[in-house]
Structure formats: C-alpha cells, structure tokens
Amino acid sequence: MKRIITEESVLFFSITKWVILAACCGAVVGASTALFLHLLSMSIAFTARFPHSFLLLPLALLGSALLTRYVAPEARGHGTEKVIEAIHKTAGRIPVLVAPIKLVATIMTLALGGSAGKEGPCAQIGAALSSLFASLLRLGNGDRKKLVICGISAGFASVFGTPIGGAIFGLEVLFVGAMQYDMLLPSFVSSIVAYHVAAALGISYLITPLNADLFQNGAMLPMLVLAGLFFGLCALILIEALKAGHFVAVKLPAPEWIKPLIGGGVLIVLAVLFSSDYLGLGLKTIEGCLRGQDVVPYAFLLKCVFTAITLSFGGSGGIVTPIFFVGATAGVLFADLFGLDRSLFAAIGLVSLLSGAANTPIATSIMAAELFGASIAPYAAIACVISFLMTGHRSVYPSQILTIPKSASIRVQTGAEIHSAAAEFVPRPKTITGLLHALWSALSHRTK
To answer: Is the distance from CB of 273 to CB of 56 less than 8 angstroms?
Structure first.
C-alpha cells in the first residue's frame, strides 16, 4: 500500500507540473505566433500594393542570408528542421536571439515573394522561447527537451488551427516509427492552449468541411490506394528537389553574398515565364484547389522548384505551407486524370504530401479530420499511410531519427539521422517480393 501511495503521489505531482509548464509554454507560443502572423499579414498586404515588388527578391534573400549567417546561424532554412536538430544534439538548447532574427528574416522573405511557409518560423520561435523559459526555471536537459517539443507542437497547432494534429506532429516528427508517450500530455496541453490564445488574438484558420459521400462506393478504395502512391511520388520529388537545390547552392562557384542575388534573380525569371502564383505562401491557390478550381497540370512541379531555390539560396521560412500547395495542386491533377472530385482529392493530397514528406502519417490523418471534417478522415488516412511508405527512408527534415525500416525487405541503419540512411534491398525468396526480385534479376542477367 505504501508503494502504491508513493507511486500515485509522484504521478500526481508530475501531471500537475507538466500541465502548468505546458500551459505556460502554450500561452507564450500562441501569443508569439499571433504576433508573427499579424506582422506577416501586414507586410504582405503592404507589398501587395506594389505589383512588381517581387523584383526585390534578390535583396530579400540577401538580407535574410546575411542576418542568419552572421547574427543567428541557427535561424537558417526552414525552422522545424533546426529545432529537431537541437533536440537531438544539444538537448533543446536554442539561443533566444533566434526568435527575433527568424521573425525578421521570414517576413522579409515571404513579403517580397519568397516561396516558403509560416509554420517553421513559428515552431522555431516557440522553441527558442521555450528554451529560454527552461533556462529561467533552471530545468534539466530532459525537461528542457520536453518544453522545446511543446514549442514545436504549439507552434504548429496555432498556425494551422489543428490542436490535436499539431500535438501529434510535434512528437511524430522527431522519430520515424516511434513516439514519446510521456510527452503526450504536455504536447496536448501546450497545443490546445496555443491554439485558443492565437484564435483569441485574432488569428483565423482555413477550415473547409468536405462531404466524403463519394467514397461510400467500395470501388473508390483502389483509387485511394493509387492516390497514395501518386502523392508519395510527388513528396519524393519535393524532397529530391530540396536536396538538389542545396547541392547546387553549395557547389555554385560564387561568393556567398552573390548566391542569394543569383537565386532571387532566377526566381524573378521563373515568375515572369510562368506565373507569380508560385511565389509567397500560395494560400489563394490552395484555397482555390479546395474549392475545385482548375490549375495547370505542372503546378506542383513548379512549386517544388520555387521552394527549393528560395530555401537553398538564403531565404527563410517553413516548408509545410509549400507542401500543402504541392499536395493540393497534385490532388487536382490526380482528380482530373481520373474524372474525380477535385475538392476531395485536393484535400487528400494536401495531408498526404505532408505525411510522405515529413513521415507523419498519424498526425496528418488527424489533421484531415480537423481541417476537412470527420467524414473524410478514414479515406485520407489510407492515402497518408501509403504516401508515408512510398517516400522510403527520406524526409524534408534530415535530422529525424530513423527507428524502424519501412519494409522487412529493406535493410537500413536505425538509430541514426534519416539523411544518412542507406537503404539496401534484402531478397526473400519465399515471399512474393523476393520471387519478383529474383525473376527481375534473372531477366536482367539474360538481357545482358
């Protein structure tokens, strides 16, 4: 009886502690997110008064690159990746200077047309403030990491209006194939508080309830499987585009301060040749796809290119909003190819792309319900899981830790960052996969 009383007392105080800490963290992140989004909205509205403001993109990328290079290097690129890296490598220690520098660099990038998102900066700003909060309270490394994870969840939830999906995303994005269940309560509390604080401060969200009656026909299941495969390939294209952009930026034989000018110049040329719709956040295009509007078939490819150039050549911002753009436009393309409902498959594409690109099938399945209604969630979940499997051992967040292979027929190093994963096929003669592989090898050998 004494042991039981002691155990329950410890658990009671632990629950009380983390409800209070997570609520405080959520309130701070919700307020900082609201401030950032209001400033971003005002900046975009101001530059929108000048139709050719995107011609200043080279200077925007240069300013962002100089700020992040010389003042706060941790604020480079898309913010969530840097937070994941800090959690795994420095016990969540993030310099507080990251918060204001990330805010300024991202607003500079997005307001003048850089193709990036808004969730990464909010996650990084929230994580930096959470790390500062931990330092003020003199918390240990374990508790600091927990608070920083709360910052990721709260930032994501308060940006997109998905408190449950945001909470799970903050946990699922750290490890591929595993979650920290001891973080469920703090993540949920911080996400819900941040969401309500941001909403109370005037932040509105893109919530589009959709009717999934079309899926009541059992014949739609094969189309959902096919959609998951297609969206997984689109996510793979985005991941590889980001890698290619980084490779080109690093190998480009030019001084570092010239590279942002070159990248900005290329974006201007592409915008003139194709459209300025691929610049900035692209929210109008996303909303149009969810309403069933038409887009050019190659829209998702162009957004991959615009985003890769922006983030590789000095721009600052998140990656999830571009993922939503790619997913929604790819969904319209898929629907047009097979004569399906554009709105439904734009919604499924939106969450499925994020699932495959970020390796977060559970969070995105929940997000489908929060963004588009419960009726679509079971069908979106099928496409999300297939997209997650289809991208293989790759991610837009290279610092994710891989804990399991995605197939028993693939050998890959676990316990390491996913960017270093080298997948190797393991033949299994007694399985269908093994037999197909053996047949292919025999045919290839005979052809040679």
So the answer is: no
pLDDT of residue 72: 80
- pLDDT (tens digit per residue) in 44-81: 999 999 988 999 999 999 999 999 888 888 777 677 88
CA separation, residue 398 to residues 47, 271, 388, 423 (Å): 33, 29, 15, 15
Is residue 376 within 8 Å of residue 347, measured between CB atoms? yes
Q: What is the pTM of this model?
A: 0.92
Quote the percentage of the chain above a pLDDT of 90: 61
Structural domain for 436, as ranges? 405-447
Q: Is residue 207 part of a domain?
A: no
Between CA 110 and CA 112 the distance in angstroms is 5
How far is C-alpha 284 from the geometric centre of its chain's CA atoms?
19
Contact criterion met (CB below 8 Å) for 63 and 104: no
pLDDT, mean over the chain = 89
Same domain, yes or no, for 265 and 190? no
Alpha-carbon distance of 116 to 119, in angstroms, equals 9
Residues 46 and 173 occupy one common structural domain: yes
368, 417: one domain = no
Residues 196 and 107 occupy one common structural domain: yes
206 in a domain, yes or no? no
- What does the buried/exposed string (b/e) look like for 23-33 if buried means 16 or more CB atoms within 10 Å of the residue's CB? bbbbbbbbbbb
CATH number for the domain that contains residue 353: 1.10.3080.10
Instruction: Kindly report, residue by residue over 347-403, the tens digit of the pLDDT.
Output: 999 999 999 999 999 999 999 999 998 888 889 999 999 999 999 999 999 999 999
- Cα torsion at 333, 334, 338, 339 (round to 10°)? -60
DSSP state letters, 6-47: HHHHHHHHHHHHHHHHHHHHHHHHHHHHHHHHHHHHHHHHHH
